[in-house]
Specification:
Blueprint (H helix, E strand, L loop, with lengths): L1 E5 L7 H12 L5 E5 L5 H14 L2 H22 L3 H21 L6 H8 L1 H16 L5 E2 L16 H12 L7 E5 L2 E3 L5 E3 L5 H12 L3 E6 L20 E3 H9 L11 H4 L5 E5 L8 E4 L9 E14 L9 H11 L7 E3 L3 E6 L5 H8 L4 E14 L21 E9 L2 E7 L3 H14 L8
Parallel strand pairs: 1-2, 1-7, 2-4, 3-4, 7-9, 8-10
Antiparallel strand pairs: 5-6, 9-10, 11-13, 11-14, 12-13, 14-16, 15-16
Length: about 450
């Protein structure tokens, strides 16, 4: 069995949805499809959650009417068999009527989750009915029956697998199962989410759960590129990446893949393919446990970084000082991305500043605090990167750009630079020139 995930742009229009059907028809064997909502729909649903807070029911009704028109037009364009068309519209109306009832509630995290996961439910049912209309046997599955994920960082894939098998055991035999991404059931048995962009994560959790032979993530770009194509010209897709390389790139900003996507498939060594829905014949990127080459592979950037410097003479030779600092961040469940130390100072970065004021208040007890916002982490990735002598060229960048921090040696596969976000594009272009365009052959010590 294979797991195929199609993102919002892949199912964003009638033409795109037809294209997904053609991709399925060209691939044999059993498949589980994990689908996102149509492009733009989740943003509208998030807007509704803000309107619930403001108790603006007129605006909510207008957006729901807009979503109804969008999905009914999609049904009319894709499903011409009258009974199937009517069945799809009835399902859609039931979902939207339920959404209206949810929107009458006071805002809560549970209400938020119930609202924002509506888009996946609507689209997956429409797509399932479209396949039936096209003579393609398939089964529609409600992900809430099996995506029991209590711990976002460490999902119980064995439990998900057992629940999945239970949900399909009485269904008519089929090579295609269709379900929703993004949604989960939490430890309190309430509807929740895998966070924005989490449909990728849904796919790999499910792949590990059913022990799939591979996972395919279909999007609108032909694989991981060696640099950010939004800012740098003449980038190219990378044919092969290791799990470790892809994990580093995803965590440090590569938009093509959700940061947690890789973790469920690593233990079971299930390869993952990144493919372009609109150019399906291109090879894309294969991510696996195999290492096909060493040295520099790619550069990515992560924005929204806050740098915090804690300066204190008490730090010198003070046993337990770092422990106390880390305990503050642990208390507020805030991860640290980069850290450097000197005899009298610690500099570190975070990408989640929701509890920044509380963190700073507690850190004030330990020394003089300096905060710098609007920074970016530039991540240079490749297996055995620090052993590649040509990598040293990246430090020539210091002649042109002020680099706030450097993390070197914490991993053999990653070197990270912290720069002011206003210098991000210049940094990406400069690194591309020095490390790719003017690149010498790698030399390993």
């Amino acid at each position: 069995m294979k797991v195929l995930k199609f993102g919002g742009t892949s199912v964003g229009s009638v033409e795109s949805i037809r294209n997904v059907k053609n991709i399925l028809a060209s691939r044999e064997g059993k498949k589980v499809l994990v689908l996102s909502a149509m492009a733009g729909v989740t943003n509208k649903l998030v807007e509704i959650t803000e309107l619930i807070k403001a108790e603006n029911h007129i605006a909510i009704a207008n957006i729901i009417a807009e979503l109804k028109d969008k999905h009914e037009n999609t049904i009319d364009s894709l499903i011409n068999e009258p009974d199937l068309n009517a069945r799809a519209k009835k399902f859609l109306n039931n979902i939207l009527n339920n959404l209206k009832e949810v929107c009458k509630s006071n805002y809560s995290e549970k209400v938020y989750a119930e609202v924002v996961t509506t888009g996946e439910t609507m689209l997956t049912y429409i797509f399932s009915t479209f396949l039936t209309n096209s003579g393609i046997q398939n089964n529609f599955l409600d992900a809430k029956e099996f995506m029991q994920v209590s711990n976002l960082e460490n999902p119980d894939t064995n439990l998900v697998g057992k629940l999945f098998q239970k949900s399909i055991e009485n269904l008519e035999a089929s090579d295609i199962y269709i379900t929703q991404g993004f949604v989960r059931v939490d430890a309190q048995n309430s509807i929740s989410t895998l966070k924005r962009g989490g449909s990728d994560y849904s796919a790999t959790i499910l792949a590990a759960a059913v022990e799939a032979e591979e996972v395919q993530i279909w999007t609108d770009i032909d694989g991981f590129h060696n640099n950010d194509p939004r800012y740098v010209e003449n980038t190219h897709a990378i044919a092969e990446l290791s799990f470790e390389e892809a994990s580093e790139l995803a965590y440090f900003g590569a938009k093509i893949l959700h940061p947690q996507t890789i973790s469920p498939v690593i233990k079971k060594q299930i390869p993952l393919f990144l493919k372009n829905t609109f150019t399906p014949d291109l090879p894309g990127t294969r991510i696996s446990a195999e290492i096909h080459s060493r040295g520099l592979k790619a550069i990515s950037a992560k924005d929204g970084i806050t740098a915090i410097k804690i300066k204190s003479n008490r730090m010198l030779m003070a046993h337990g000082f770092l422990k106390k600092i880390f305990e503050v961040f642990d208390k507020y469940e805030t991860a640290i991305d980069m850290i450097t130390t000197s005899e009298i100072a610690i500099s570190l970065t975070i990408d989640d500043d929701r509890n920044l004021n509380e963190i700073l208040e507690e850190l004030n007890d330990y020394g003089e605090i300096t905060v710098e916002k609007e920074h970016s982490i530039i991540c240079i990735v490749g297996e055995g990167l620090i052993e590649d002598k040509s990598t040293s060229r990246l430090f020539e960048l210091l002649n042109d750009i002020s680099v706030r921090m450097i993390s070197y040696g914490g991993s053999n596969n990653n070197i990270s630079l912290l720069v002011d976000t206003k210098n991000k594009v210049q940094t990406l272009k400069g690194l591309n020139r020095k490390l790719f365009e003017e690149r010498i052959m790698p030399q390993f010590v």
